[in-house]
Amino acid sequence: MIAEPSTNNLPGGTQPEDSFRDHISIVDEAGHRIWLHPKKPKGKWYRYRSVFTAVLLAVLVVVPFLRINGEPLVLFNFFERRFIVFGITFWPPDFWMFGLAMVSFVVFVALFSSVYGRLWCGWACPQTLFMEMVFRRIEYIIDGDGAKQKALAAAPWTGQKLAKRVLKYTVFLAISFFVANLMLSYLIGTDDLLKVITDTPAHNWSLFIAILVFTALFFFSFTWLREQACTIVCPYGRLQSVLTDKKSLTVAYDYRRGEPRGKLRKNTDRQIGDCIDCKQCVFVCPTGIDIRNGTQLECVQCTACIDACDSIMETVNMPTGLIRYTTEESIQTGKPQRFPMRAIGYSAILAILWGVLGFALVTRTDTRTNILRAPGSPYQELPNGTVQNLYTYKIFNRTNEVLQPEIRLEGVNGKLQFIGNPPAAVPKGQSCEGSVFIILPASALHKRKTELTLTVSTAGTKPETVTTTFIAPEQ
User: Distance between CA 115 and CA 391 in Å, rounded?
Assistant: First the structure.
């Protein structure tokens, strides 16, 4: 975590309240939860986030219905161990690529966080998007602004309060049910989801229960867990202490300009900082922190405090930007922020990983074939002057189509003699296997072990090259 600014030596000797260091903002001294009712934000940054959120939510809803060659654009079917990313299907034999992709993702998170801090949390995290831009807005419509919500929560139960609670939680439950179905469409596809919705539960008990579980989880998250998902559950915020430094971008209070803070008084020559201690930045914070205490675990960089502070600064005819996107180093030195040096190292590692992953995707063939010598089977010398070895083969179809593979021997004058039928048509995501003799003339074999190259091809696709070893008598 970026070191919080100390005001001990600031002009005026302002001594901030340090109790915020002892506990998170949503827990009181007795360990009880503090329910937050933030004031409704408004301003330039909130409008930007609203537009960006609308785009992201539209993408989230539309993507499961997009198809390439009849297959979903994106699918994460853990049940059938089949993943589709931008039309490319990945099966269990390709999971090493997912491992490489996960390592790349971790490095990307480290790189992104070292440069931009928790920008992801405030602008793109699904928890923040749904909580602040969907569920919180519904709360403002039904229960009113933060002050009215707090008063309603403290008020005794009346018919009006009961009606508002029933209405709000009914809407919350309906949205949670919709989100649960949407998330399930990423796991099983829209076609199977439609079957679950239209058929009776008895035909799809497991998926029906999955929808109910997802609905309950989302409803719990957005009605009770809320900001605790960011401050307690999510590990990303706690990783900020090792991922960020003084050069990382963050939403920060310019304490050099703002301190010592003090109330605005008419007809006086202000000799203190620009912060008028209106606490509007605290009232709008969805995690209940005071941004003036410095960078804290709970801050998700949602920019609500920036809009609140800028609005007050404009009202009192002071420059905006007292709270802004900046870096700790920039505040300390007064110089523009610079690209962190360690981010260059992260970038180099990420470039290498992406290069390897890109090469693997470009060279990836439609089949994955293993051709091995049959265990315990020696070479055989035939009367016609040839030598044969017995092999087993297994061909896996990586595509979403039925393939008819063909095995060829390359570079030598030999032939293949299949035991039984040659490789049959292979359905998508399945494999065929069998045995084959490779027969070579003895005159072409000059050493005990000879490396052979075979190709496995299908109509109109890039052939796969496979190597194996041929055993012959010593010459």
Answer: 54
Question: Which residue has tokens 């052939």?
Answer: 463
Reduce the secondary structure of 384-413 to three states and give it as a string. CCEEEEEEEEEEEECCCCCECCEEEEECCC
**Domain 367-471 annotated CATH 2.60.40.10:** yes
Give CA 100 to chain center in angstroms: 15
User: What distances in angstroms separate CA 414 from CA 38, 257, 373, 446, one per listed residue?
Assistant: 79, 84, 16, 15
Give the C-alpha separation, 281 to 288, whole Å: 10
Q: Are 83 and 98 in contact (CB under 8 A)?
A: yes
Residue type, 212: L
Query: Per-residue confidence at 22, pLDDT binned at 50, 70, 90?
Result: low
Task: Tell me which residue of 53, 76, 35 sits closest to 125, measured CA to CA.
Answer: 53
pTM: 0.81
> Alpha-carbon distance 179 to 356, whole Å?
35
Look at the chain and count its residues.
475
Q: Where are the domains of the chain?
A: 1-65+117-333, 367-471
Q: Are 451 and 469 in contact (CB under 8 A)?
A: yes
The letter for the amino acid at 276 is: I
The model's pLDDT over 256-302, given as tens digits with 9 standing for 90+, comes to 999 999 888 877 777 888 999 999 999 999 999 999 998 888 899 99
